[in-house]
Design goal:
The protein has 18 helices and 13 strands. Strands 1, 4, 5, 6, 7 and 8 form a six-stranded mixed sheet that branches. A five-stranded antiparallel sheet has the order 9-10-11-12-13, with no helix packed on it. The protein has a two-stranded antiparallel sheet with strand order 2-3. The chain is an alpha+beta fold. Among the domains are: about 90 residues, no CATH class; about 170 residues, Ribonuclease H-like superfamily/Ribonuclease H (Nucleotidyltransferase, domain 5); about 80 residues.
Length: about 500
């Protein structure tokens, strides 16, 4: 009993850790710098931006004006944006709040408190300059040996635009809307005629007025559809978006209704982005070289292996990629009428360069029978009509006479097929490398949608996104202090 009471008495005398009273004056105030330790990323952001040539990068108002009201230095606002994207804060209004309450931002900006409009205007007015900042960070990472410079994985992802799917129209949808509007107009007009014939019923006047209003509204709506269709005919575009005119309806399998196509080239060593671009092209086909070649150049090497999925398979692009020093590894998609009908695929026919002929699965020699063109390329069709008619494998090959076509530069595909047979694992390696940045950007960084409208604006957004993704990876691998030393060295 005594021990129990003594324990209670001891408990009543114990207190929790207490802080300062809020109205207490401190004799020696603590410095803000004491709140930011040596390994805090804001110290690197501060050193990195201070080491940039902002005027050369294209930032406006780097030199203060001699007259007028002083403005904020672009370096300070750039630091704020990099910090914000690194901490999943992209909105200008939220960045304004952080400048008032976040001790790291207070340290970084030296207690400056720009308003949200100043912050938003800075991103809009300097949208083209952010790419140069991204490039400078890539060069820094190259000096730190963070890029293996042996294998690049290229892929694309779709990110949602500020444009609802209901405000995106294609030629087909506009024609369907006009057809449906015409049907409803005919129905309304027929009902209006019937109301006019009625013998002055009391409700007739109200019903006639209501129908007339519906007809007028529908005609205006139909007129807007016709104007948009005329605009597509005039511009040659396939679709039109009303909220963000540069955005496009993406393919159904991407799960993004209306958005942009983001392309990246990722180095395999640390899964860091070397090159990135935002386009409103719906498909990836034709984007391999323009993504991989700038990446090879910034890495400063003569040749590099490049791997991509079958969505990039286009013979002209693969040929250009190889000529640019980017050795392509792209699997061939199995498509075409023969594949759909279950016949022998084209890759089951072996090309004999010495005889300029194909050898079919039955062992017959297919020689040139026709010459033509496809997409400005010379095309030759190979066949053996007489052998096809008596071939025992004909039911598995064709309904009539089988021919195999070959483009003038198709030898580049033969070389690529040999490389893929020698390194089949490289396709799995691609998935492992390139899915990491996309998963991090959309899930960890919460950036599955753009905040701004217009292609140039969303490019500026993604330049910051890619910069911060690389920054996070570099900090995890190297650490803050070595990176600061690299900037200052």
């Amino acid at each position: 009993m005594d021990s129990f009471e003594s324990a209670r008495g001891l408990e009543s005398r114990m207190t929790h850790i207490a802080g300062f009273e809020r109205d207490q004056l401190l004799l020696l105030p603590e410095a803000v710098d004491d709140y930011v330790d040596a390994e805090n990323p804001v110290r690197f952001i501060d050193a990195f931006v201070d080491g940039l040539d902002l005027a050369a990068a294209g930032f406006a108002r780097v030199t203060a004006r001699a007259t007028g009201r002083p403005g904020y230095a672009p370096g300070d606002l750039l630091k704020l944006y990099i910090y914000g994207y690194l901490n999943r804060v992209r909105s200008s209004r939220r960045l304004e709040r952080e400048a008032h309450r976040n001790i790291e931002v207070i340290w970084l900006l030296r207690s400056l408190r720009p308003d949200f409009k100043t912050i938003a205007d800075f991103r809009r007015d300097n949208r083209a300059a952010f790419r140069a900042v991204f490039r400078q960070f890539v060069l820094l990472c190259r000096r730190l040996d963070l890029y293996g410079r042996e294998l690049l994985a290229v892929d694309g992802t779709r990110i949602k635009a500020v444009n609802n799917k209901d405000r995106n129209f294609t030629r087909t949808s506009l024609r369907e809307f006009i057809r449906a509007a015409d049907e409803r107009l005919n129905d309304y007009l027929a009902r209006l005629d019937a109301s006019d014939i009625e013998d002055g019923a009391s409700a007739g006047g109200a019903r006639t007025k209501n129908l007339a209003e519906k007809i007028e509204a529908l005609r205006k709506k139909r007129g807007r559809y016709e104007a948009m269709l005329a605009q597509l005919d005039r511009t040659g575009e396939d679709q039109i978006s009303l909220t963000d005119p540069d955005s496009r309806a993406m393919a159904a399998h991407t799960k993004v209704g209306v958005g942009y196509n983001v392309q990246v080239a990722v180095d395999a060593k640390n899964k860091m982005i070397v090159e990135q671009a935002v386009t409103n092209q719906v498909v990836d086909m034709g984007l391999l070289t323009q993504t991989a070649e700038p990446a090879r150049e910034i890495l400063g090497i003569e040749t590099i292996d490049v791997v991509a999925d079958r969505g990039y398979f286009k013979v002209e692009d693969i040929d250009a990629c190889e000529k640019a020093g980017c050795i392509p590894h792209v699997p061939k998609p199995q498509r075409g009428s023969s594949v759909r009908e279950g016949f022998f695929r084209k890759d089951e026919f072996r090309y004999d360069a010495g005889r300029d002929a194909y050898v079919c699965p039955a062992g017959q020699l297919l020689t040139p029978i026709r010459h033509g063109r496809l997409r400005d390329l010379k095309k030759v069709d190979y066949g053996a009509p007489h052998a096809c008619r008596v071939c025992p494998l004909r039911p598995r090959c064709t309904n009539d006479i089988r021919s195999v076509s070959r483009l003038e530069n198709e030898d580049v595909l033969d070389r690529m097929a040999e490389r893929l047979r020698a390194r089949p694992h490289i396709l799995d390696r691609r998935r492992e490398v390139v899915e990491h940045p996309f998963g991090s950007i959309k899930q960890w960084m919460y950036q599955g949608a753009f905040l701004m409208r217009g292609l140039e604006n969303v490019r500026a957004e993604f330049n910051l996104t890619a910069l911060v993704y690389n920054l996070r990876r570099a900090l995890n691998v190297v650490g803050v202090e070595p990176m600061i030393a690299a900037v200052r060295g």
